[in-house]
Amino acid sequence: MKKSGESQGQSASELISKRIAELGDWRGEALGRMRKLIKEADPDIVEEWKWMNPIWSHDGIICTGESYKSVVKLTFAKGASLKDPAHLFNSSLDGNTRRAIDIHEGDEVDKSAFKALVRQAVALNSSGKSKPSKKAKS
């Protein structure tokens, strides 16, 4: 059986490393730097490859890592539910669920604040497992 995100015999981690290398510019460097911080924040994070992009999960999706011409976008699946005292979220601020961090060339992201967001997202996903199901009362 294939693991989530495997493609043509490559693991998700290999595909993410390949994407970082293929970008070959500041975007690859930024994506690689953020990947390292995500793994430092949660050593049990699972790397996946979905929708042609890196996904980091722990009891559900934590964030996606998309690369565009002028921005690397890290979209947190449940970002609207996270406290962001450092105001890292700077994109997708109007939605009810997701929040994103757009990183432009030359931007530096506060490492400790970013790791705190990842840890919060993991805790939020993990807490959902213990919630009682919403079954109708008899």
Characterize the structure shown:
By secondary structure, this protein is of the alpha+beta class. Helices cover 33% and strands 20% of the residues. The chain contains 3 helices and 5 strands; from the N terminus they run ααβββββα. It has a 5-stranded antiparallel sheet. α1 runs antiparallel to α2 and α2 crosses α3. The longest helix is centred in the last third of the chain and has 17 residues. The chain is globular. The N terminus and C terminus are likely disordered.
Break the fold down into its secondary structure elements and pairings.
Elements: H1 12-23, H2 26-41, E1 46-50, E2 53-57, E3 61-67, E4 72-76, E5 99-103, H3 111-127
Antiparallel strand pairs: 1-2, 2-3, 3-4, 4-5
Helix pairs in contact: 1-2, 2-3
> What's the SSE pattern?
HHEEEEEH
Average pLDDT reading: 89
Radius of gyration: 16 Å
Strand arrangement within the widest β-sheet reads 1-2-3-4-5
Q: How many helix segments?
A: 3
Silhouette: globular
**Helicity range:** 25-40%
Main sheet properties: 5 strands, antiparallel
Stretches with pLDDT under 50, minimum 5 residues: 1-6, 130-138
Strand content: 15-25%
**Structural class of the helices, strands and pairings?**
alpha+beta
Q: What is the chains' assembly state?
A: single chain
| Total beta-strand segments | 5
Instruction: Give the terminus-to-terminus CA distance.
Output: 41 Å
